[in-house]
C-alpha cells in the first residue's frame, strides 16, 4: 500500500489531467472508506526518508487540511472529527509526526510542524494534550543528546505554528521553558541561520503570550537583546524577522523599548537604506507602530483614562532625522499598477502619523523636500512631493500652512493634466485633502476656488482612478462648505455644474472601476446636503432625472452576477441621494413623494440587504420631510416596516426600520390607524423577548414604545400592562461582565426604560388617564434606587438626565399621590447630582425635577 499511496500522491500533482483526476479520486475514496487508517498512512509517507519530496509534502498537506477550515463552524466540526478518533490512532499519528520534526529533509520537518500546529492546537484546546509543549521540548532535548542535527529547528518551527494557531488564548503554559528554548535558538553560538530564523519566527508568533514575562527586567532585557541581534543579523531573512519582532513588541509592550530605543533607531535608519525592500518596510513599520502607540497614549491622557504606558515621546526625539528618511522613501514608487503595500506606502502613513504627533513642527522638516521635488522633472520625485504635502495636512494649522498651500495649489491644478497618471491621481488626492483639513485656505479666494472646481470637473473625464479622487475631492469640498442655514455660499455659483458633471460621471461605462460611480454619487449627496438656500430650486429640478435613473435600474438586463452587483450599487446610491434631497427640500418633496415611495418599494424586491437599508433610510427621510403628508403611503409601506423589524439576521435593517417607525409616530401622531400601532406593539414586544435578536438593538426598540405612547395617548391603555411588564424585566438586567460593551449595553437599556416610562405617563396625561400609571410607581422607585446604587461611572449625564426627567414627570403629573414616596434619599441624590452637572440641559432638568419634589 505504501508504494501505491506514493504513486497516488504523485499522480494527484501530475500535469497530465487524466492522471491528476485519477489521483484526486483515489485520495477522496481512501478518505471516505477509512479515514483513520488513511491518515496513519499519510503520516508514514511524510516520515519516510526514501520517498519523494512531492509525495511527502502532499501527504502532510492532506493530513493538515483534513482538520483546518477558515469558517469557525466548519473548523469546530473538523476538530470534533479528530477528537472522536480512537486514542491509539491519534497517538500513533502524533508520534510519527513528532519524530519527523528531526528529519534531515527541511520540507518534511516543516510540513510535519504545520500538521502538529493544526492537530496539536485542537488537542491542547480540548485538554487532550495538556503537556504538548513540554513533550515537544523534552523530545527535542533527548534528540539533541543523540546528535539529531535538525531537531531544534523542527521543534521551534512547530512551536511557531502552534503559537499562531493558539492566538485566541491569553497565555501559554511553561512560558519560561518555551522562552528558554526560543532564546537559545536565537542566540546560541551553535545556531545556524535556519535555526535562528525558526527561533525568531517562533518568538514573533508567541510574543503576546509572554507579556507577563516582560514584567521581569532580566527576561525582558535578554529577549530585547535577542530581537535586536536578530534584526542586525547579516542573513536578510533573519534580519527581517527580527525587525518584525521589534515592530510587534512596540505594540505589545511599548514600555520595553526604553533602554533599547537608541540601538533600534540606528538599526532602522540603516534598514531604511537597505537594498532589501522587506527590511526597509519593517524599519518604517517600527516607527509607524511607535507613532500609533504614542497617539493612543496621548488620547488616553486627554480623556483622563488610566494607562500603564508612559509616553516617552520617541517620535519627537527622532523626527529631525526620521522625517527626511521617510521623505526619501516616498520616491520608491512603482511606475505602473499599484504593487500593493510597500515602502513608499508605509512611509506615507508614517508621515501622516508623525504630523498628528508633532503637528506644525513637521512643516519645517518637510518643506525643503516638497519645494525641491514638486517641480522636479522626474515623475516619481514630483509625486513624492505631492504625497508628502498630502501627508502633513492633518495635524497642522491652516495659518502655518497657508503659504505652502498658496504655492502648491496652482501646481497641483496644472498637474491634474500631467502626462503621468500617478501624478494626476496624487494631485487630485492632495486637493481633496486640502479641502478636508484646510478649506479656509481656499474658500475666500473666488478665483482660486473657481479654477480648482473647474480643474476637478475636468478630471472627472480622466481614467477611473483619477476621476474617483476628483469626485472625492468635490465631496470634501461640499462637506467643508456647510452653508445649509445661509442664503448663499462660495459654492452656490458652481452648484449645477458640479451636479451635472458628477451625474455624467455616474453613467460612465467604467464607473465600477476605482469606486468611481459610488464616489460620484457620494459627492452629489454631499453637495445637496450642504449647499445654501439659493440652490434649492435647482435641487428640486434634479429630483425627476434621478428618479428616472432609478426607474431604469428596475428593467436592467441581469445576465451575470456582475450585472446584479451593478444594479444594487446604483440603486443603493440613488436611494442615498434621494434621501438627502428629501432632508433638504422638506415639504417641497411632496410633489414627488408617491413616485419616490413606489421606487423605494420596488428596490425592496432586490435580494441585496444593503439596498434595503438605503431604501429604508430614504423612506425615513420622507417621513420626516412630509409629516402627516406621509399618511397616504403608510398602508403600502407598513409591511416593509414589519419585515424590517423582524429581520434579526440583518441587524442594520432592523435598526433602521425601528428608527423609521419611531419617527413615524413622532410626526403623524394620532392619525396612525389602531390596527397599525397594535401590530407595531406586538412585533416589538416579540422581538425584545426573542434571543435571536442582537441585544444592542433592544434599547432602541424599547424607546419606540415611548414614541407610540406619546403619539396615541389614551389609546395606549390596551398595551399598558404588557409593555410595563417588559419594562420591569428590562430594568432588572444587570451587568454580567466587567467590560465596556456590557456596561454600555446595560446603560443604554436602563436609560431607554426610563425615557419610555416618561413617554407613557405623558401620553396618558394628554387623555386624562394618568391614574392608570399609579400601580407601576413602586417598581419605578425600586428601579431608581438600583440605579442610584450602581457604580459612579454607570451614572453618566445621560442616565442622570433620563432618571431626573422621569422623576419630574411622575411627580408633576401625579402630584401628592406619589410625592412623598419619591422624596426618599436615593432619588433626592439622583436629582441633586443633576443639579451639579456641568452640562446645561442636565442641570436644568435636575433643577426642574428638584422643584417638583419640594
From TrEMBL:
Its main location: cytoplasm. HEAT repeats lie at residues 408-446. InterPro entries: ARM-like, ARM-type_fold, Armadillo, HEAT_type_2, IMB1_TNPO1-like_TPR, Importin-beta_N, Importin_beta. PROSITE patterns: HEAT_REPEAT, IMPORTIN_B_NT. It is found in: Cytoplasm; Nucleus envelope. Keywords: Cytoplasm, Nucleus, Protein transport, Repeat, Transport. Gene3D superfamilies: Leucine-rich Repeat Variant. Pfam families: HEAT_EZ, IBN_N, TPR_IMB1. Residues 23-103 form the Importin N-terminal domain. Coiled coil: none annotated. SMART domains: ARM, IBN_N. It comes from the Eukaryota. Belongs to the importin beta family. Importin beta-1 subfamily. PANTHER family: IMPORTIN BETA. This is Importin subunit beta-1. The lineage of its organism: Eukaryota, Metamonada, Anaeramoebidae, Anaeramoeba.
Amino acid at each position: 500500500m505504501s508504494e501505491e499511496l506514493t504513486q497516488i500522491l504523485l499522480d494527484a500533482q501530475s500535469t497530465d489531467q487524466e492522471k491528476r483526476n485519477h489521483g484526486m479520486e483515489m485520495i477522496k475514496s481512501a478518505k471516505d472508506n477509512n479515514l483513520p487508517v488513511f491518515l496513519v498512512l499519510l503520516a508514514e509517507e511524510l516520515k519516510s526518508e526514501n520517498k519523494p519530496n512531492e509525495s511527502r509534502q502532499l501527504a502532510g498537506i492532506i493530513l493538515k487540511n483534513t482538520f483546518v477550515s477558515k469558517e469557525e463552524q466548519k473548523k469546530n466540526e473538523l476538530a470534533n472529527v479528530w477528537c472522536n478518533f480512537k486514542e491509539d490512532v491519534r497517538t500513533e499519528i502524533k508520534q510519527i509526526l513528532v519524530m519527523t520534526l528531526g528529519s534531515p529533509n527541511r520540507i518534511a520537518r516543516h510540513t510535519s510542524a504545520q500538521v502538529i500546529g493544526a492537530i496539536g492546537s485542537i488537542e491542547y484546546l480540548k485538554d487532550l494534550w495538556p503537556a504538548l509543549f513540554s513533550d515537544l521540548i523534552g523530545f527535542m532535548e533527548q534528540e539533541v543528546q543523540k546528535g539529531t542535527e535538525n531537531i531544534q529547528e523542527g521543534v521551534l518551527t512547530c512551536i511557531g505554528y502552534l503559537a499562531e494557531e493558539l492566538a485566541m488564548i491569553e497565555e501559554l503554559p511553561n512560558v519560561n521553558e518555551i522562552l528558554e528554548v526560543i532564546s537559545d535558538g536565537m542566540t546560541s553560538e551553535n545556531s545556524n541561520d535556519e535555526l535562528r530564523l525558526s527561533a525568531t519566527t517562533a518568538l514573533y508568533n508567541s510574543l503576546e503570550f509572554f507579556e507577563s514575562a516582560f514584567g521581569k527586567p532580566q527576561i525582558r532585557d535578554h529577549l530585547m537583546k535577542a530581537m535586536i541581534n536578530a534584526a542586525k543579523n547579516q542573513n536578510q531573512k533573519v534580519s527581517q524577522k527580527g525587525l518584525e519582532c521589534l515592530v510587534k513588541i512596540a505594540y505589545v509592550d511599548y514600555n520595553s523599548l526604553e533602554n533599547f530605543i537608541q540601538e533600534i533607531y540606528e538599526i532602522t535608519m540603516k534598514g531604511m537604506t537597505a537594498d532589501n525592500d522587506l527590511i526597509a518596510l519593517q524599519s518604517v513599520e517600527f516607527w509607524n507602530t511607535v507613532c500609533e502607540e504614542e497617539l493612543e497614549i496621548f488620547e488616553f491622557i486627554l480623556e483622563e483614562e488610566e494607562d500603564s504606558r508612559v509616553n516617552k515621546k520617541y517620535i519627537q526625539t527622532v523626527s529631525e532625522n526620521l522625517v527626511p528618511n521617510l521623505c526619501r522613501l516616498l520616491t520608491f514608487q512603482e511606475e505602473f499598477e499599484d504593487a500593493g503595500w510597500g515602502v513608499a506606502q508605509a512611509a506615507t502613513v508614517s508621515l501622516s502619523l508623525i504630523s498628528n504627533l508633532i503637528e506644525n513642527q513637521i512643516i519645517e522638516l518637510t518643506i525643503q523636500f516638497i519645494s525641491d521635488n514638486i517641480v522636479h522633472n522626474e515623475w516619481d520625485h514630483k509625486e513624492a512631493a505631492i504625497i508628502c504635502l498630502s501627508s502633513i495636512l492633518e495635524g497642522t494649522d491652516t495659518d502655518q500652512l497657508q503659504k505652502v498651500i498658496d504655492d502648491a495649489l496652482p501646481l497641483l491644478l496644472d498637474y491634474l493634466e500631467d502626462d503621468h497618471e500617478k501624478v494626476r491621481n496624487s494631485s487630485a488626492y492632495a486637493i481633496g485633502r486640502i479641502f478636508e483639513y484646510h478649506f479656509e485656505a481656499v474658500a475666500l479666494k473666488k478665483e482660486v476656488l473657481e479654477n480648482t472646481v473647474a480643474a476637478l470637473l475636468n478630471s472627472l473625464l480622466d481614467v477611473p482612478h483619477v476621476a474617483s479622487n476628483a469626485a472625492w475631492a468635490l465631496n470634501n469640498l461640499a462637506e467643508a462648505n456647510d452653508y445649509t442655514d445661509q442664503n448663499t455660499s462660495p459654492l452656490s455659483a458652481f452648484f449645477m455644474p458640479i451636479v451635472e458633471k458628477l451625474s455624467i460621471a455616474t453613467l460612465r461605462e467604467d464607473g465600477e472601476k476605482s469606486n468611481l460611480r459610488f464616489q460620484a454619487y457620494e459627492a452629489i449627496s454631499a453637495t445637496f446636503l450642504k449647499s445654501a438656500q439659493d440652490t434649492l430650486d435647482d435641487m428640486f429640478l434634479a429630483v425627476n432625472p434621478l428618479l428616472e435613473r432609478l426607474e431604469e435600474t428596475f428593467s436592467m438586463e441581469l445576465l451575470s452576477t456582475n450585472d446584479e452587483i451593478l444594479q444594487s450599487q446604483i440603486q443603493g446610491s440613488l436611494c442615498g441621494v434621494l434621501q438627502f434631497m428629501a432632508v433638504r427640500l422638506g415639504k417641497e418633496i411632496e410633489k414627488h413623494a408617491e413616485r419616490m415611495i413606489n421606487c423605494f418599494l420596488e428596490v425592496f424586491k432586490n435580494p441585496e440587504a444593503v439596498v434595503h437599508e438605503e431604501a429604508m433610510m430614504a423612506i425615513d427621510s420622507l417621513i420626516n420631510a412630509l409629516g402627516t403628508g406621509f399618511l397616504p403611503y403608510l398602508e403600502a409601506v407598513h409591511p416593509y416596516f414589519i419585515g424590517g423589524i423582524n429581520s434579526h439576521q440583518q441587524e442594520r435593517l432592523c435598526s433602521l426600520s425601528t428608527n423609521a417607525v419611531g419617527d413615524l409616530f413622532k410626526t403623524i401622531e394620532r392619525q396612525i390607524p389602531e390596527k397599525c400601532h397594535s401590530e407595531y406593539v406586538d412585533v416589538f414586544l416579540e422581538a425584545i423577548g426573542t434571543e435571536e435578536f442582537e441585544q444592542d438593538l433592544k434599547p432602541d426598540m424599547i424607546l419606540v414604545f415611548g414614541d407610540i405612547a406619546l403619539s396615541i395617548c389614551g389609546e395606549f391603555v390596551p398595551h399598558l400592562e404588557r409593555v410595563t411588564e417588559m419594562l420591569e424585566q428590562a430594568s432588572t438586567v444587570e451587568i454580567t461582565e466587567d467590560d465596556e460593551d456590557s456596561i454600555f449595553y446595560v446603560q443604554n437599556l436602563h436609560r431607554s426604560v426610563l425615557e419610555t416610562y416618561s413617554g407613557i405617563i405623558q401620553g396618558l396625561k394628554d387623555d386624562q388617564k394618568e391614574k392608570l400609571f399609579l400601580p407601576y410607581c413602586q417598581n419605578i422607585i425600586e428601579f431608581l434606587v438600583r440605579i442610584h446604587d450602581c457604580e459612579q461611572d454607570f451614572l453618566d449625564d445621560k442616565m442622570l438626565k433620563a432618571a431626573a426627567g422621569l422623576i419630574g414627570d411622575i411627580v408633576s403629573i401625579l402630584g401628592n399621590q406619589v410625592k412623598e414616596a419619591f422624596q426618599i434619599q436615593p432619588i433626592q441624590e439622583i436629582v441633586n447630582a443633576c443639579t451639579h452637572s456641568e452640562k446645561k440641559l442636565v442641570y436644568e432638568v435636575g433643577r426642574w425635577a428638584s422643584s417638583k419634589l419640594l
